[in-house]
Design goal:
Elements (H helix, E strand, L loop, with lengths): L1 H33 L2 H12 L7 H17 L4 E13 L5 E6 L2 E4 L2 E3 L11 E8 L3 H11 L3 E4 L10 H6 L3 H11 L5 E5 L27 E4 L1 H13 L4 E5 L3 E15 L4 E11 L9 H21 L5 E8 L7 H12 L3 E7 L7 E7 L2 H8 L2 H4 L6 E4 L15 E7 L4 H4 L12 H21 L4
Parallel strand pairs: 5-6, 6-7, 7-8, 11-12, 11-13, 13-16, 14-15
Antiparallel strand pairs: 1-10, 2-3, 2-9, 4-8, 5-9, 10-12, 14-16
């Protein structure tokens, strides 16, 4: 009897594995032959454009994606979730130049998100170059007062995972101005978070923390070529002056929306699985990689399931979050409403690392769930998706909490991502259709497998 039972379990396991292999093949075939994500992204990028929170284009993007969800026939219902978002406006294009022995050399800069403006006449002062925030303490008020602090710590090129390099230097962008102001600095220039040498300044958010409003100082990013030129010139002439002008300002909060499409679960409608990305982008470009790719890939997951006739056991929500770039309020609002409605989220998957070739996933969850997903790895080997490791999964799903919940983040190849991240070259022509589709297929495959097996308590 035991032999028969063991044999039945073995046969059942083989059948389950074979069925999954066949289903994943269907998923990838559908993505590579019937996908809509590339067309959605083309419209989002080229017909709407940059989508900074609270902008007119952000509102257009909400209405477009809502309409496409409704027309797709993939969802049982489509709705908008209200969220108040901050309004920060760049204003006229920034200008900057070095003044070396009365010779002016223009360099490319852009105001950092949430920064205050310079005066209408701009700001001119001597420059002090530092590489870490800790250096400010060693220099002190005597050397920093009245100066522009130039944070020039590059991304470390030795890390194969470029996100590790990004994490190693982004603090100077986020809190450099706040810390420099404490020592009397009058402005901050930050080297762009980019491994490549080019002339594109990279935006990104910064903050002043609890610093009094009258101590806030303007902060801007300088391109990597500009940073190298400024550093080189400073070594020759430590007394050179730097001039920059920016006209950014903050307005009142504006009503916006998370866009949500829902497929009701056939067996466990009370259990919710989220897949999403963020609909907003920085204002320098159309944000095709960050994160137009992620939102259209998430919609494509639902399109794939419709094409292959798959009815999920659990409720699936495609969530296009608003305001990831300069506030994170879309993710916070989604979690707030989930807690208010006492919802049971078992899984969340985010795509916010660009539309490049998928390489795997990062996971957050208990040991049992991590062991479960590691068991899926062999199914992904034919598609060259091999990274299954613990790590940060996504800023929009980060606030979401449920008992024993499993979170995942799509991890594409990272080598080119920071060439485009937050910069004016993050445009649709940087997207490869096939890579975008492969990423959507990998997301659908993972969602399918978790939907089939459930999560471990």
């Amino acid at each position: 009897m035991k032999r028969i039972t063991l044999l039945c379990l073995l046969v059942s396991g083989i059948s389950f594995g074979q069925n999954n292999e066949q289903r994943l093949r269907q998923i990838y075939d559908s993505a590579l032959t019937q996908s809509k994500c590339y067309g959605w992204l083309e419209h989002l990028s080229n017909k709407i454009g940059p989508r900074l929170s609270a902008s007119a284009n952000a509102e257009k993007a909400v209405r477009y994606m809502q309409s496409e969800m409704e027309k797709s026939g993939c969802f049982d219902k489509v709705y908008l979730q209200e969220v108040m978002v901050p309004q920060w406006v760049r204003g006229e294009k920034e200008t900057a130049y070095l003044i070396d022995n009365k010779q002016k050399t223009i360099v490319p800069i852009c105001a950092l998100g949430n920064s205050v403006a310079t005066s209408k006449n701009g700001l001119q002062a001597e420059v002090i170059e530092v590489h870490t925030i800790a250096e400010l303490e060693t220099l002190g008020t005597e050397k920093l007062k009245g100066k522009i602090v130039f944070f020039n710590r590059p991304m470390d090129p030795v890390n194969i995972d470029t996100f590790t390099s990004y994490g190693g230097c982004v603090d100077q962008r986020g809190k450099g101005a706040r810390e420099a102001a404490k020592f009397g600095a009058v402005g901050v220039i930050v080297r762009s978070m980019n491994l490549r040498l080019d002339d594109f300044p990279h935006a990104g958010n910064m903050g002043y923390g609890d610093l009094p409003r009258d101590q806030w100082i303007p902060a801007a990013a300088i391109s990597t070529n500009g940073a190298d030129l400024l550093s080189k010139t400073l070594r020759k002439n430590p007394k050179l002056q730097f001039y920059f002008k920016q006209s950014c300002y903050k307005g009142d909060d504006v009503l916006s929306y998370n866009v949500i499409g829902e497929i009701t679960g056939s067996a466990h409608p009370e259990k919710i699985m989220v897949v999403g990305g963020h609909l907003d982008s920085w204002d320098l470009a159309d944000g095709s990689h960050d994160d137009g790719a992620g939102v259209t890939q998430s919609m494509e997951v639902a399109n794939i399931f419709k094409n292959i006739g798959y009815k999920p056991k659990n409720t699936i929500r495609v969530v296009l979050f608003m305001n990831e770039e300069n506030g994170g309020r879309g993710g916070d609002k989604y979690n707030e409403m989930a807690q208010l409605n006492n919802e049971n989220h078992i899984f969340a998957l985010e795509s916010d690392c660009g539309g490049f070739s998928p390489r795997g996933f990062t996971f957050e969850g208990n040991d049992a769930n991590f062991a479960m997903v590691q068991g899926y790895a062999k199914l992904f080997e034919p598609y060259l998706v091999h990274i299954f490791r613990r790590g940060h999964t996504g800023s929009d799903i980060e606030p979401l909490k449920s008992a024993n919940m499993l979170k995942a983040g799509l991890r594409p190849d990272t080598q080119r991502y920071f060439d485009y991240h937050h910069a004016a070259n993050d445009t649709f022509d940087a997207i490869n259709k096939r890579e975008l589709e492969l990423g959507a297929a990998s997301m659908a495959a993972l969602l399918y497998l978790v939907d089939q097996t459930g999560i471990q308590n």
